[in-house]
Write a structure and sequence with these properties.
single chain; 209 residues; mainly alpha
Length: 209
């Protein structure tokens, strides 16, 4: 698929979303009042689920890819030993270029193998994340009252569930480290907000006096 085709698909998706809003297919959703406790519980739940997912993902990838990685590592060591042996046997002789080419080829193959393993890990994580979210672990849905969701049209409710599954699955696929960073960012934001409110209250007290 060419870059121009991808651009057309992306542009068509954006236009479709804008048309849905323009023709009133959906309406704004009113969220519940977000408390620190609710957000902390949500992050903690997703964090624990993600930890379980990462361990299962690690077992699967180790079973599938560890042997190939070890074989490539052995090949690299083999070519290194050949070069070192040649240097010891005839230090004054220039080592043939083919030995270095073989070593470089093995290193490139190992880099490609690791790159594909990382891509596979991301895809597997996204698949697990989507499956977990479909099973019922959601992030946005828990912040909206069920009475509000029941008032939505069938189409908008389906769209809401799809978006919730995609976002939650993506967050889980990002790993526990990403969720930890989100938690720290939210905590920093709340602390800054509390300090700002205290500063405003002091200024109001001074003006009132």
């Amino acid at each position: 698929m060419g870059s121009r085709t991808k651009s057309w698909l992306f542009g068509g998706a954006v236009i479709l979303c804008l048309c849905a809003a323009a023709f009133g297919v959906t309406v704004p959703i009113r969220f519940n009042t977000v408390s620190v406790t609710a957000i902390a519980e949500l992050f903690a739940t997703i964090f624990v689920v993600t930890l379980f997912m990462e361990r299962a993902q690690e077992v699967i990838l180790t079973t599938m890819r560890a042997r190939g990685s070890e074989q490539l590592e052995l090949a690299i060591r083999k070519f290194k030993r050949v070069i070192q042996r040649q240097k010891k046997i005839a230090p004054e002789k220039v080592i043939e270029e083919c030995f270095y080419d073989q070593l470089e080829g093995a290193r490139i193959e190992k880099m490609d193998y690791r790159a594909f393993t990382r891509v596979l890990a991301l895809r597997l994580g996204l698949l697990f994340g989507l499956m977990i979210s479909i099973a019922g672990v959601r992030s946005i849905g828990v912040l909206v009252d069920e009475a509000v969701l029941s008032q939505l049209s069938a189409l908008q409710l389906r769209m809401f569930n799809v978006v919730d599954v995609l976002l939650t699955g993506g967050v889980i696929a990002g790993g526990s480290d990403g969720i930890h960073k989100m938690t720290e960012l939210y905590r920093s934001y709340m602390e800054t907000n509390v300090k700002r409110n205290k500063s405003k209250n002091r200024e109001l007290d001074v003006v009132g006096d």
